[in-house]
Write the structure tokens for this entry.
Amino acid sequence: MINSNLLAVVGSAMADTASGNWQKPVVMFVCNLLALLVLSRVIWHPDVGPKMPLPFPSLFNNVSVPAFLASMSAGHILGALMILTLGTDKYI
């Protein structure tokens, strides 16, 4: 048997997230793009492994797949921290 208090909490949490907010995906996209632009030039060995088929190779430093995954991972961490920080101050 499911506790009715648990259902109330789950229902309110789903109502908050299901409303949709366009600022959070934009912040995540910008953080990922910024991480790709910056970290593709900072990674020590960006050319090890197969190349990532990106649309503008010179803009993104023609990175390899491992370098791309590393910069996207760092971008997601940066984006999550930005969303949590901006959400605390109620900017988004």
Q: What stands out?
A: The longest helix spans residues 65-88. The CA atoms of residues 40 and 61 lie 6 Å apart.
